[in-house]
Design goal:
Largest interface: A-C, 90 and 95 residues
Radius of gyration of chain A: 24 Å
Order of helices and strands of chain A: HHEHHHEHHHHHHHHHHHHH
Function (chains A, B, C): Functions as an ammonia transporter. May play a role in the elimination of ammonia in the gill.
GO molecular function (chains A, B, C): ammonium channel activity
Membrane topology (chains A, B, C): Multi-pass membrane protein
Distance between the termini of chain A: 38 Å
Oligomer: homotrimer
Structural class of chain A: mainly alpha
Family (chains A, B, C): Belongs to the ammonium transporter (TC 2.A.49) family. Rh subfamily.
Shape of chain A: globular
Organism (chains A, B, C): Cyprinus carpio carpio
Helix content of chain A: 55-70%
Chain lengths: 475, 475, 475
């Protein structure tokens, strides 16, 4: 009881009441979205009722040529990754499953709206009427953009308030749109699955925020910083939906035809390969060869991250296997050695280990992409194939593959720089004592922001039927 | 122990033995389905081996023009919503997860068969050979039809026997088919995502049944009428799969091309918007701004329901955001104030709060649809676009948008009327004391209809390894 | 405590340390995969950058004619069945959920790589350059092939080490490829959904292995051989994703156009029908008509298995209902009577009851396929339709439907024979005392191969807030 009092005092030291701030942020921002959408966002020619006239004008023979039919199945897979994949992957903590899946839901739902605007302004603003015309590809890109913020959330899981997460997302999406514009439009780098644009940026953004928000006394909530049996099974739902649909992620906005087809094959193979090396390293690192669920839940996905940039390229099937092989090893070693090291020495508390799952494999993906691009050749790609794959036309019609490789490498540095600088700035904002974040002793605890159902210790005694059943020994 | 005896007596008052009735109903109805399918149901021209001749005759250049490729991805998403979405959404009760997901499975599997027949007789009966020719669109419509019965199940969850649910479904599907025929064929109203046809009808059907079956002593099973931590996480699986795939629901049978494309965009936006307002109202209503899982699990979906009718229309992206904004607020307020009010004053016990998730957003959807239709114009839709969107041809070739708006409003009243009258009739049938429904003290308890595994209190003591592990303090 | 010591002694009798063997197997086999992929596997013409030239050469008008757009949505559904469907179906045991979903993940990820090679050598080896050219159809076939090994895993669940599972998969995939070659290429039998090739083979392969590995003292771990409440709900995730996506499974590699369309309709109906008969038999077999989760989780799927061979045929919608009707009954009766009989009399310990879910319905599917094929006629199929459906061209251009029926029956025997003989051989290999399998007392226990999180009995006492909450009675 005395211990209880002491803890209660510690809690009182921090005000986690978000009854004003969270509703205010949600309402103000949602109303802002409505106004900005009213001013800027319209249907594009494929989702507008004028499509039938557009078809006739462009001599398009069938409704199937509407981009909807090329991309909608992939979009839905990506959508599942964002909400169930990321959401359930973060349910592994014993008492933060509500926060894991619930706040993921909140910030993703906000982020996709803001992303449609930000990405629209940078990429799709119609010069004639200053409107952004949206279709299914914009929806996919908005999901992609939000993914970077969800990655960043992984580093902060359990240590921040939902209001802080909304701020993290607002700035994250903004930074993403600028970074993406520089990488894809100015540098003309290719990054279909976002190894650099999404994963590297998102991970360093989150890690830097976590570094700024360092909590020296976090061990006070150490008893909540692990999983229980069933929370680990819940997290596997997230892992598997991410793993299964990653081929859709890396191919969703790839070129129609062979581009999407090849991106799927490459990602499928890289993922399969990283599963085996993850199991191997996990087993070799433990007493009796026992496997660690943290590794299986996370490092098995490294192959998908690392295949993000090169997924469209002719990296060959065995090349994909090699990428998965290496990234599975690197990622699992990260969980074993780097995460503890970073926490102790670098003062970076990375709840979900995003450095291992997104940062390192993302950087690998960027490097693999640069090398694969630099070594592309007409003999492998075919003359037209090379032009199509790298979009060597218009302003970059004369670019060589070597120069393309250089720009790919430059893009990687842009992603890292945006993550570090952006994270430092946003971390500074989030450090202000106005956001209702939890005390150290209260981290990883749903009870702070959620009405948690009472655990029913006395359930059986009030339920005579079942009581009866359990009184018969079953051995 | 005394209490236990008392409770046992109460239970004995009701016979919940369904060993004869449930198998009898299942067998008789399944055999009836086989006979009726034998008489009436055949493949349509796109799923028949004569497709190749049909293609040649109609000069269709590619297999892709088979409707299968337009609709199959959406069909599968809808299928997931019906079985995993609705099923897991109903697992939130601490001891009724088997019944939630299991009975949902049973009645949906029966309902889709009966729906193929009922909808076939009303919409697709071939005049020449009196056969119903089915293809993928019929499968989607059958799933839609069943959705209305699953909504009705939500009001009765935990308080009825599986035999009653089968009866509820038999009549529910029948009523649905008639109502749908009146609304879509006679009134020629548009309702691609079924705000009126599915949600409004289903909700009032279930609420009226629940009203007829009112249980004054339901508080006797109050200790089972809440969630536990993990059952709330299970329910989030249902919520998210409904939320993610709702764009497919509202676009699955929309017009090829821009119709499906636009329905997806509108629904995606409305859903995103209702997430933010749900979080806002949930937080503002509680002490310290704590969020309530009941709201997050349900009211976040209101935007999808409310966008059902207008999803195909040119409601504009910001219009969709506004619809989601309002329906999220209305739905959450419903959970806060209306559900307790209805239980106390109107004697309607609505276990899942379908009035808040389906009835009110469904009515909003019907009204939004009527207004949007009435305000449609050639300047926005284009001449052809207007005709295509509202199918102003054949018998209704000369209908104006204003008249269409009127018919949309009339359709809403038809849906409500069918729900109320149908629910009263079916509720009366279900009140007969022959269906094996549970006693008041036994509601919300899987133990009545399921072999529930014994909870293993002494698990650790018989499992020395783990016992050992837990004896080491981990703090 | 004494009991604990005794158990510990028993455990020491078996060495379950896999710290060398599992990583060694994973690394060696993954490196072998990389080398073999390097030598043999390339992109096919639809996933290669030369696709654009190929299109021009073949006069293909649109990118949509790339097989990717015909098959990718079905592929993703199948992928979900393999990893989430099979994986979560095996989480039902109270303390083997990690092993169920985790080892399923490991062996599927390895198996698909090996399957691409084995199936490629037998079916797709290019005679000119001795390369295997892969596209999306190969990915589906690899998933199919792995399914047979996952079925076999079901019989061994909880009783084998992950190293044994890797060996089971290596040989299982090898045997599968040969068997599939004989059935599909030499006998020219049709088996789109693999009733024979996948389910019958996989089930008898696993059952024979389980028979060879018979454990007379398995009752020592009987206390772990059941479910708990939440593990049964997890298993329903597996059940439902298998059930919902089975139409995709049976149609994924069916003929473009009406073939895929019809396979979906037939499977959808057979599955719906088997749900009703499963509920009926489950209820009739128990006291008070209570339902058994084991039946609902498994036998409801029997209709999908039994429709595997005939899914493409003109079996008619009511024919599909009849197939589902019978297989649901047979499968549930299997769980009630055959599984206990087999364990006691035949010494076959079948953890998941794959004999009831895969073997018997698979055989039914083979027989139904043979009969349906033998009774096909030009009057029903149309002249071209008959040729297309059964591929009566080239070497088998003159085959009659009767002869086709005979070959279908022969194929069923090939599948059974491969399962029995292959299972005996592989069972013998797995019986060697070098694989680190658990002692009898240690079966069905994740603690042997996994770092299991400590169950936190004292959670509440260290968490004053919640303690406080639960001290208020909620009745």
């Amino acid at each position: 009881m005395q211990e209880g009092n002491y803890e209660n005092k510690l809690k009182m030291a921090k005000n986690t009441n978000i009854r004003i701030s969270l509703p205010a942020v949600c309402f103000v921002w949602q109303i802002a979205m409505i106004i900005l959408f009213g001013v800027f966002i319209r249907y594009d020619e494929e989702s507008d009722t004028h499509w039938i006239e557009h078809r006739r004008k462009k001599n398009i023979s069938t409704n199937l040529e509407n981009d909807f039919y090329y991309r909608y199945p992939s979009f839905q897979d990506v959508h599942v990754m964002i909400f169930v994949g990321f959401g359930f992957l973060m349910t592994f903590l014993k008492r933060y499953s509500f926060g894991g899946v619930g706040f993921n839901f909140l910030i993703a739902a906000f982020g996709i709206q803001w992303a449609l605007l930000m990405q629209g302004w940078f990429h799709h603003l119609d010069e004639h009427d200053w409107k952004i015309k949206i279709g299914v590809e914009n929806l996919i890109n908005a999901d992609f953009c939000v993914a970077s913020c969800l990655i960043a959330y992984g580093a902060c899981l359990g240590k921040v308030s939902p209001v802080q997460l909304m701020v993290l997302t607002l700035f994250g999406v903004t930074l993403f749109a600028v970074e993406e514009y520089i990488i894809l439009e100015l540098l003309h780098a290719k990054d279909a699955g976002g190894s650099m644009v999404i994963h590297t940026f998102g991970a360093y953004y989150g890690l830097t925020i976590s570094w700024v928000l360092y909590r020296p006394l976090l061990s006070q909530s150490k008893h909540l910083q692990g999983s229980v049996y069933h929370s680990d099974v819940f997290a596997m739902i997230g892992t598997l939906f991410l793993w299964m649909y990653w081929p859709s992620f890396n191919s969703a906005i790839a070129d129609h035809g062979d581009g999407q087809h090849r991106a799927v094959i490459n990602t499928y193979l890289a993922l399969a390969s990283s599963v085996l090396t993850t199991f191997a390293i996990s087993s070799i690192s433990q007493n009796n060869g026992k496997l660690d669920m943290v590794h299986i839940q996370n490092a098995t996905l490294a192959g998908g991250v690392a295949m993000g940039t090169a997924s469209e390229f002719m990296i060959t099937p065995y090349g994909s296997l090699i990428v998965g092989f290496c990234s599975g090893i690197v990622s699992t070693f990260g969980y074993l050695f780097l995460t503890p090291f970073m926490e102790k020495t670098l003062k970076i508390q990375d709840t979900c280990g995003i450095h291992n799952l997104h940062a390192m494999p993302g950087v690998i993906g960027g490097i693999v992409g640069a090398i694969t691009a630099a070594s592309a050749s007409e003999s492998v790609y075919g003359q037209e194939g090379l032009i199509n794959t790298f979009d060597f036309k218009d302003a970059v019609a004369n670019r060589t593959v070597n120069i393309q490789g250089g720009y790919q490498a430059a893009a990687l540095f842009v992603a890292i720089a945006f993550g570090l600088v952006g994270g430092a700035l946003v971390g500074g904002i989030l450090k202000l004592p106005i956001w209702g974040d939890p005390a150290d002793v209260n981290c990883f605890d749903d009870d702070v922001y959620w009405e948690v159902p009472e655990e029913d210790e006395n359930f059986l005694s009030r339920h005579p039927n079942m009581n009866h059943a359990t009184s018969i020994p079953d051995v």
